[in-house]
Structure formats: C-alpha cells, structure tokens
Amino acid sequence: MAGLNVGATVGLLGVLLLGAARLPRGAGASDISLLPGSGITIRIQLGTPPPPGKSCYITIGKKQDTTLSIKSGERVVFGFSCQKPESYFVMEIHKSVDCTTGPCLSGEVQLEPSTSVLPILNRTFIWDIKAPKSMGLELYFPSPRLRQISPGKACPDGVTHSISGRVGTTEVRIGTFCSNGTVSRIKMQEGVKVALHLPSFQLRNFSGFSIANHSSIKRLCIIESVFEGEGTATLLSANYPEGFPEDELMTWQFLVPPHLRASVSFLSFNVSNCVKKEERVEYYIPGSTTNPEVFKLEDQQPGNMAGTFNLSLQGCDQDAQMPGVLRLQFQVLVQHPQNESNKTYVVDLSKEKTMSLTIEPVKHGRKFVPGCFVCLESRTCSANVTLTPGSRHKISFLCDDLSRLWMNAEKTLSCLEPRYCQRKSYPLQVPDDILQLPVQLHDFSWKLLVPKDRLSLALVPAQKLQQHTHEGACSTSFSYQLASAVPGQDLYFGSFCPGGSIEHIQVKQNLSVTLRTFSPKFRQDAYRQGLNVSFIPFFKEEGIFTVTPDTKSKVYLRTPNWDRGLPALSSVSWNVSVPSSQEACLTFLQERTGVVCQTGRAFMIIQEQRSRVEEIFSLEEEVLPKPRVHRHSFWVNVSNCSPASGKQLDLLFGVALSPRTMDLTAVIGTVVAGIAVLLLALGLIICFVKKRRKKINKGPAVGIYNGNANTQMPRQPRKFPKGRKDNDSHVYAVIDDTMVYGHLLQDANGSFLQPEVDTYRPFQGPMGDCPPSPPPVCSRAPTAKLTSEDPPPLRLSESEGEAYTFSHPTKEGVDREDTAMPLLVTQEPTEPAPSEGLA
What we know:
About 10% of the residues lie in helices and about 40% in strands. By secondary structure, the protein is mainly beta. Among the domains are: about 20-225, no CATH class; about 225-335, Jelly Rolls; about 410-660, Jelly Rolls. The protein has a nine-stranded mixed sheet with strand order 8-16-10-14-17-19-25-22-23, with no helix packed on it. Strands 35-43-37-41-44-46-52-49-50 form a nine-stranded mixed sheet, with no helix packed on it. Strands 5-2-7-9-15-12-13-11 form an eight-stranded mixed sheet, with no helix packed on it. A hairpin with a 5-residue loop joins β49 (about 605-610) and β50.
C-alpha cells in the first residue's frame, strides 16, 4: 500500500512538472512585498508595444493592464499574459531618501527588493537623495571603476550608471558611465540621483557603489579618476552636450603615480556669452609655485606633469538674452616618461618673417590614437604645435614613438618691386634647425610670389632633376612638388627628384614648391636638396623646361596636369640639348593625344634650333610623329586649345641619346658638293682668263675715270710721280649695272637712288634662346605640316640679293713694276663661290 502511495505520488508529481513545463513562460506569478517606510516605489509599464495581432498584459487575478505601481507597505502578486514579457515591459525601482528630515543613506547600497524576487525584465534602480547645501555626498565605486561615455552611446555589457546632481530645484546631469574605467569617486552637494540600468539578461544582484556623508564641497561636483599605470580617460563637463550650469565650478582629481607623466588635451569645447567673470580652466599641481595655473579653453593645455593634479572648469554669469553654451570634452593621457622628455631642442625663427613650423600627429587612414605630445618650455604640451616666425622656441617631446609625429613648414618669398629683386637668386633649402629635430619632416613648402605680368620665375636645382612618371619613377627619399600658386588656377607641373636631366625650370607666374619626404633616409640625403630661385623678365608660356639628356638612360617628360589635362589656351616648351657627338631619338609614347577642341586648335611644334626649321602638328586630328632622330638641339612646344569636357590634352614623350652615326647620304652629298665647287672654281678661273685676254685685244675697258692713273700700255716707262704703295692706282672696282645705267635710276627730283651696300658679317650670337612661337590658338584655318619627305621652304641666303664691295689688302712688298698693268676687265657679273669674296 505504501508502495502504491509512493508510486502515485511520483506519478502525480511528474504530471504536475509536465504541466508546469507546458505553461507559458510569462504565466509564472511574481510576489512582491514592500516594507512600510522603505521609500521604495515600483512601476512596471509597457516600454515597447507588441506588434499588431499580438497582445501582452500584466495580469492581477482576472484583471489585465499595461501598467502596475507598487508602493511602500503594499504586496502584489501578478503575472504576464504572454511569453517573453521582457521584450515589451520595463520596470523601474525608485527609492527616495530625504537627508534633510531624517537619517541619510550611507554605506554599501543594496538592491531593494532583491533581483531574485523580481520578474525578468529590463530593470532600472533609482536612488534619489536630497541633502542640504552644508552636506556633501560621496559615491564610491571601488570595483569595477567607471568609464564616462557620451550621451547616446551604449556600454558593452548593457550596465550603465547615470548620475545627476542638484542646483536648487534644477537637476544637473553629471554623466553616464560604464564599467572598467578610472572614475572611483563622485562627490556632490545638495543631493544626488543615481540610476543603475540592468538589462533583462544581466543577473547582477549588487549596485556596485557605496555612499558616504561629508562636509560641503562648495562646488557642483568633484570627480576622482585613478590611474595605476599607463592609460587614457575621456571626460565631459556637466550637462554635456548641453550647456554647463551658469557660474558653477566643477573639478576633476587625477591620482597619478609619481613615476608617470600626465598630459591634457581638449578634444572639443564651446564657450558661452559672459557678462561677468570669465570662463577658464585652472590646474592645481602639487609642488608648483604658481598654483593655480589658469588657462583659457582655447589655450594649449599643460602636459608632462608628474604625479597627481587637479583640473577645474569655472563658468561665468551669462547673458540672459543670448547665454550661449559652455561645454568641454577632454582627454588625459598617462604614460611613462620617454628619453626625449629630458631633451630640449631650440628652433630659432627670430630672423624669419614668413616661415612657420607645425608639428602634428601623422595622419593615417584609421582614427588617430593620441599618445604623442610636443611641449613648449617643457610644460605646455599639445598634440599639435605651431611655431610662429619672429621667436626663438624651446621644445621637447612626450612620446613613446616619435615616428607617430611629423613636421610641416611653410615660407613665403615675394617680390613686390621688380627693380630690387630681378636677376637675384634666393636658395630654397630646409634650415638646419629643422633638420636637427628628431621628428620626420613631411613637407616644406615655399610660396613664390611675383608681380603679375611683370616678372617670372626660374628654378635652378643643385642637382639636375628627374620628372616622376610611371615609366621613369623616382626612387629618392624626397621630391619637389611644383604647382601654381595663382588663386583659382589648378595647375600641377609635376613631381621632380634629383638625379635626372632637367637643368632648370622657368614658370610664368606664382609658384608653390613643396619638398616632400618619403622616408627617414632624408636626413642622409639632405645634402642633395637645394633649389635656387631667381626672378626673371616676364614671358607668356606656362612653363619652359631645359633638358640635357643623360647618355646612360632615357628621359621621360610629360605635360603638366597629367591625367587632368593641360589647362585651356596654355603653352609649355621643352628645350632639349643634344651634344655634338650624340644624336637624340624623340619618341612619343602614344599614337594620339585624344584631345577634342571646343574652340581653337591644339598644336605641337618641333623646331631644330640650328636650322630653325619648324614642323607643326595638329594634336587634335593627326597621329603623333613616329620616332625621329635629331642631331642638333631642338624645341618641343605644346599649345592647347579650349578642350571639350572629358577630352583633355596629355602628352608623354621620351628622349634617348646615342653616339652619332655617319650618314652615307650626307657624306656623298658633301663629296659631290665639294667636287662641284672645285669644278665651278676651275671653270670661273678659265673663263676669267679667256675673257681678260679678249678684252685686252678689243680695246680699253669701261671704268671709272682716274686722273692720276697711267693711261699708257703696260710695260712702258714709268709715268707715275708716286710709287704704287703711295697712290691708289692699284684700287679697282667692278662695274655694276647701276653704274652703267645710273641715269635711269633718277627719281622725280633728279636725285639718284643709291643701291644698298653692306659688308657681310658672320652670325656670332647664341642659337635657340627662345622657344618657337606657336600659331594662333584661336585660328580654325588648316595648318600645313612638313613631313620628312617634303623639302624645306626655299630661303633667300644671306649672300643673295645684296650688293657687296670687295677690297683687297695692300702689300708692302709688291713690285712697283706690277702697277703698270691695269687689271680692269669687262665681264658679266657672276656670283662668287661661298669660299670667295667673304674676306
């Protein structure tokens, strides 16, 4: 019988357990009982309404509702009509403590009622404590300490502490905090309100803080932050991002081990409109003789501070009509002192007027993590420091890795009066004071300014430059970036590095030259840097590049604004020098430019500087020339039109030198020309002799009457009263047509028109100083092109079309008997050979 009873009991228990297992989760009843006078109120309400077609209610017996309130001294048994009520309902447990009329809460704060008797909902425990102004309340968070977050942010575990204070009847939000931070204490007066939010999945059953009573702190609050080692903390002013309370004082205490160093940086701040006092921050540093140290919010904040210090934010009396907003977000970095912390570097800019230097964190694609500071006079530290001209600066570094910092410098050189700076040269070189700093130089920029349309610029490098292209990339530790500094003009000439073939660069207008480094190796290569800039007479092309190719490598050159197109209606030239023992092969690396002109024409001119023969190519219509050999220096000029959108002018070409080879055609031509000249000279001599004999036999020649000359036949007794060297009888003239028919050259007034007579002078000046002049870019007329098969246009040589007089030098030792023979022979005018008559 007993066995049967036991079996029945076990069976009944199994049925009950099975039934309980099949009941909805929300159907379980909760029994909550609050003691009288506890000051606790519980409120359950609908947080997120259930979706349409689904309902969820709080059930008390047969009654259903969406809200439930339980006050002190009440007991309520309730349940839910749906599964997972935590998806829809939230619970708030509110405890009020009035320290002005009774005992104040102190010691470790407990969760009341215990979480074990509460339904599994999102819970918020609130402690609202009122206190007189003479009492200060301290919240202590031993472990884990708190970490402040910005409003709207969430904590990883979902557990947050929201803390507020009170100024009179106004509630002031101190901040929202997560676990695992540095904040250990928060002190307030006039009362405090703490809200602990626990998500439904958190089974935590402790508050994590305790309360102690202290004397008045005479300020809004004090937040204590403890550092046991290296780390960072981000903190916010009260009511952030809304305005800090008017004329209030808030303090942060930072407990830092004495062997560590702390630095403060303001991440963001705003100031309000003050009518009385001044908004400021104050630092109290133990051991300092200048406590408190006062700074404005826009000032660089202290750094490299050893040990504990305080930071206070002081508000002001605000304008009632336009109060403005005072808010502050800042960060404290604590780290070990570095070797560089004890070194001081001097940067002397006292003699500079237009140069500035900025030291800042290296910009990466990811968000920068602060950790490097630059300190002025070892105390005022910041992640970004700008050294201004006209002063001598002492700086040190608080940084565990100096490669996380870099320097950028700027300097302006301007010529306002051309007569003072024309033809003068100025060096563009990084000063030694900057090179001695232990931080990598990123950019050093010179802005070169000239009067518009009056002067241009010429750059001469210490070492010849190479233009960076895909085909001929630079491999040096630095390069020069050249770009126009004319406002509104987007013109980038290119990147150039030492070790190339460009001897100098001329630019029409304002220019920005930026020395950019690519590796710390620049310190070893600094001797290779150096440009000299000079102000030269104005010219109209955007740029002129003088190139002397290297015999060992090919030179690659490209138009400015590569990949974006040469600016409209602009022109650029390359002056390529070819040594006498070399020949240059000019190669274009594309078949067509692809430019489409909207207005005007785009041209390229290739001109041999010796022969001055120009070849003109239309860059819009024609195929670029095939590889061609030049034996002499030549110009390449490119002139752009106004291109259509998306069809820009980009041109890339290369020049390679090789030893000059003998041209068989030229050799044969030279030999044939020499033989022809020789035969012509021989024929002229024979003809001259024959005609002379004939004319002697025919009679006297027509000549200029000379009353002092001997009219007798040769080899007769001397009739001259003077010797040959004492008279002009040996000077003769060739009769020109204008002498014989001079009477036909009379003008209306009866005067004679004299022929132009000049003396030949060989050209002694330089060739190729100026680039070829491009045709008008606005012309739509077709332009003829000279090909290699077409002969060059005929030119009138300098010996043609001009009358020359030929005089022969006298000789002291000439026999007097030779003077008796007049050598005037009547003959047809003949053009002398090039080797004759050019005395």
